[in-house]
């Protein structure tokens, strides 16, 4: 009960995360781990050559059709230097994937992906 209450309180807490480090360009782990699936209707900007249509409304980034696949739009070496080669046209799910949550804690999904690639899971502030 207490744990649940703590969780609820935490989810309402807003912390200034503007000064926290964003190490994504030397990471890229989440682009080589998760299925990157999105709604086509809200993502007309994503180049069609980079996606696979999987249903009437959904598409997935090529390379991420299977779990732990590498997005074909990811350039570079994970954990060293990485870059999304369609950065300005990437799907909304990528754009909204945060390193830091609103309560100031690191996104557990970010930790999971970094861990999988043998990177230090927690980002030092
Ligand atoms: S796993 Fe985290 S730090 Fe790495 S690229 Fe994704 S959001 Fe950025
Ligand atoms: S589209 Fe870009 S940001 Fe999204 S998973 Fe692929 S490389 Fe990463």
What does this 3D model show about the protein?
This protein has 125 residues and is an alpha+beta fold. The protein has one domain (2-12, 21-116). Helix content is 19%, strand content 14%. It is built from 3 helices and 5 strands. The strands form 2 sheets. Strands 1-3-2 form a 3-stranded antiparallel sheet, with no helix packed on it. A two-stranded antiparallel sheet has the order 4-5. The model has no long low-confidence stretch (mean pLDDT 92). One iron/sulfur cluster binds at residues 23-24, 27-30, 97, 99, 110, 113-114.
Class derived from helix and strand content: alpha+beta
Tell me the major beta sheet: 3 strands, antiparallel
Distance from N terminus to C terminus (CA atoms, Å) equals 31 Å
Rg, nearest Å:
16 Å
- What ligands can be seen in this structure? iron/sulfur cluster
On the 0 to 100 scale, the average pLDDT is: 92
Poorly predicted spans: none
Instruction: Assess the beta-strand content as a share of residues.
Output: 5-15%
Shape: globular
- Bin the helical content: 10-25%
Compressed to H and E, one letter per element, the order equals: HEEEEEHH
Task: Please give the count of helices.
Answer: 3
What's the number of domains? 1
| Number of DSSP strand runs | 5
């Amino acid at each position: 009960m207490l744990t649940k209450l703590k969780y609820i309180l935490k989810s309402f807490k807003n912390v200034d995360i503007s000064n926290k480090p964003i190490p994504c360009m030397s990471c890229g782990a989440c682009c080589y781990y998760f299925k990157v699936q999105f709604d086509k209707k809200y993502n007309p900007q994503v180049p069609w050559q980079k996606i696979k249509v999987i249903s009437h409304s959904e598409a997935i980034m090529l390379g991420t059709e299977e779990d732990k696949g590498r997005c074909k739009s990811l350039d570079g070496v994970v954990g060293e230097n990485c870059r999304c080669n369609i950065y300005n046209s990437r799907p909304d799910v990528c754009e909204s994937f945060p390193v830091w949550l609103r309560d100031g804690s690191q996104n557990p999904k970010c930790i999971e992906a970094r861990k999988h690639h043998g990177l230090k899971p927690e980002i030092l502030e």
